[in-house]
Amino acid sequence: MLFLYRQGFMAQILRSLICRLPFISMCYGLWQRLPLTKRKIKPFIKTFQIDADEFEKKVTDFTSFQDFFIRRLKPSARPIAHSDAIIPADGRYRFFQNISPDQTIDAKGHTFSLPTLLNSKFLAEQYLHGTLIIGRLAPSDAHRFFFPCDGVPCKTTHIPGPLFSVHPKAEHPFIFENKRALCLFYTQAFGTILMIEIGATNVGSIHQTYTPNTRVQKGEEKGFFNLGASMIALLFPKNSLTLESDLYTSSPSCELRCLMGEPLGNG
Question: In sequence order, which ranges of the chain are alpha helices (DSSP H)?
């Protein structure tokens, strides 16, 4: 990954091929479904010091590395906070309030376009000066994501795009043009919020497991990512969310490690 994102003609060519041809990520995903990849699970758990006691399954019951990657955790491992909104997935988070059309997203001065992220100028206008929450899921995280509050989710819209890496050392503006899924989520506490799942290198598919247009409660599963790192984003309308005080950071490049179910804020 570090080679792909360094300067140089060869790295640029390889990066373009791997990130823009979904066939490559698809083949990688199919490989990780093979039973022989089970041998990678225990070394992976040891390397990243993952707590196997949190798993719903025993380690020996996983049928492949892919099966382990999309693992479910015991409900007791992620208690749901009493706040109006909760963190929707394990990951490393950044929080932006009063977002602008040319919002700076890291210390390198990178910006992103809200209309590009949402694939809609109309939607972007509804969320200007609102609150943006970006969560980066590392390969060691459980790659299931959940509803942050009570409400009624619409059907998810899928937006095609490349599969650039979301790793901080590979960070660049193109990640918000990656393959992504967008869901309008009607809530009483915050109005209509947006839930966005963003694929990344070796993440060829984003699976939705919820039933559209059916009321859900915070902490209910929305879906999961197949193998690889990935990213989620939440957009709240202007002045609708008051973040928990310990989530404020002094730098847009500072990530906070958060777990699903922890308090996010109140309406």
Answer: 9-20, 22-31, 41-48, 65-69, 114-118, 121-127
